[in-house]
Amino acid sequence: GGGGGGGGGGGVRVMVRNIACRYSQEDVIRWLDEAGLAGLYDFVSVPTRKGARGESNRGYAFVHLRHPCSVELLHSRLAGRKLGD
Questions:
Q1: What mean pLDDT comes out for the span 54-65?
Q2: Is the predicted pLDDT of residue 56 greater than 80, yes or no?
Q3: 70, 80, 85: which is closest to 36 by C-alpha?
């Protein structure tokens, strides 16, 4: 799958939206892998915030794709989907 390290070098970073606030970085990685994107990315960042109910994500993630040509595939696999669908 992907992971939480790296992110430097070539490739391209994209923002993925429509992530329910209850999901963690590990959930997002699993979702990407289940969508057939395993091996296409090397870094996932899920920004979080602390609130009265604890920590939650901000509804989006940044995914660093190894190759710019993978952007269209990511878009076709995730367009219109929310994490958990």
A1: 92
A2: yes
A3: 70
What pTM was computed for the model? Answer: 0.80
Spatial separation of the C-alpha atoms in residues 73 and 71, rounded to whole Å:
5
Q: How far apart are CA 54 and CA 15, in angstroms?
A: 24
User: What is the C-alpha to C-alpha distance for residues 15 and 10, in angstroms, rounded to an integer?
Assistant: 17
Cα 37-85-42 angle, rounded to 5 deg? 25
**pLDDT score of 84:** 64
Q: What is the pLDDT of residue 67?
A: 95
Count, residues in the chain: 85
The whole-angstrom separation of Cα 53 and Cα 23 is 14
Interstrand relation of 48-51 and 41-45 (parallel, antiparallel or unpaired)? unpaired
